Amino acid sequence: QSALTQPASVSGSPGQSITISCTGTSSDVGGYKYVCWYQQHPGKAPKLMIYDVSNRPSGVSNRFSGSKSGNTASLTISGLQTEDEADYYCSSYTSRATWVFGGGTKLTVL
Amino acid sequence: EVQLVESGGGLVQPGGSLRLSCAASGFTFSSHWMHWVRQAPGKGLVWVSRIINDGSGADYADSVKGRFTISRDNGKNTLYLQMNSLRDDDTAVYYCARYLGVSGADFWGQGTLVTVSS
Questions:
Q1: What is the pLDDT of residues A23-34, one digit of tens each?
Q2: Does A93 lie at the interface with B, CB-CB under 8 angstroms?
């Protein structure tokens, strides 16, 4: 069960847009619509930001959007705000009826 | 209000056992798949285990299969994780999480720290 591949870090200025990628295989990301994204601030529990590739839970800002192409999913945050600075994790259901997370991406808002 | 409250963490020696509990409230516990996810200090999230609504089916990460057992008591609205043959690399904060369908966990507990050390 190898972790999904995410960039270790990304950065952007307030108001800009950034995209975080999440690469898996045809046995996880590429094979299912069950990809989600979490935001985690230091010392806090993760918060679900996107589920089923592109759906936002109630209460999550529409500045957050998700997509998928082949074995790679992406999270885009538009109109960056300082409070968006956090760690972001992708996750996918797999063909083995397990779940796998990405290694995490640290977002810095400059 | 949905609440998940973990307990049972602590310091245990390698080879020892520990049972974590997760008390759920504010929703119909028996209607949801429940998961355990862990996070080693300074590291990323790692999926551990999942149990379906009525407790009749469970899945595990390869790293814990044969050592950990997930269970639930729907009458007590409580999720459990029995951890045996603990190793140093099991040291982590353990979160219980309610899944929104198959894809994602929409509610998480605050986590309980398990430290495996001699």
A1: 999 999 999 999
A2: yes
